[in-house]
């Protein structure tokens, strides 16, 4: 776990220590701090101590708490700010990474999935693409020529997250009307949209490597019309 930000890091450290010492169920941890950052390493038997972290975060809203874990074959990540869990995701090691961003008007800004081979699919409200990411370089794949693994990754993501205007989808359309959102070419499924609306209109399960691929895609495709 890392705590960063232009704020009262020393005070955060003392407050968290106060809460952890007084928690009879607190897990063992060690501290590995550096200039401008607090770092904690836990070996939890019962789970990450989110109550203590969110309580402390609420007292120091200027700081960001990044929690990442890898335990018994499961990876996960959470971001806590101002006492609230803004992002939380978990995935099996072989699961594709996913990132979804939606505007306040319901527009799909970016839907992204990347598999372990660093091949993926990206979609916005009005366009989509297949891509590969190798050694820091992004290349695009002809939509007519994706291999079976890439197609399976893309189709699995779409089935879980996306619906298109060309579909009948009466339930999805009715829920978009309820939200006051227009239907566009590609849209986030309403059950996922409800979760996004409660968590800042953004979701991510990307790790460090797949985040680099996402950043390259944003720079070279999303931000270039």
Summarize the structure.
By secondary structure, the chain is an alpha+beta fold. 31% of the residues lie in helices and 33% in strands.
Description of the molecule:
The protein has 225 residues and is an alpha+beta fold. Helix content is 31%, strand content 33%. The chain contains six helices and 14 strands. The chain has helices at 9-21, 50-59, 148-161, 170-179, 190-197, 208-222; strands at residues 2-4, 29-31, 37-42, 64-71, 74-81, 84-91, 97-102, 108-114, 119-123, 128-134, 137-141, 162-164, 186-188, 202-204. It is globular. It starts with a strand and ends with a helix. The model has no long low-confidence stretch (mean pLDDT 86).
Q: Report the total helices.
A: 6
Secondary structure: helix percent? 25-40%
Distance between the termini: 38 Å
What is the subunit organization of this protein?
A: single chain
Order of helices and strands: EHEEHEEEEEEEEHEHEHEH
Structural class given helices, strands, pairing? alpha+beta
pLDDT < 50 stretches: none
Radius of gyration: 20 Å
Q: In one word, what is the shape? A: globular
Mean pLDDT: 86
In spatial order, strands of the major sheet run 2-3-1-4-5-6
Largest sheet: 6 strands, antiparallel
Number of strands: 14
Strand content: 25-35%
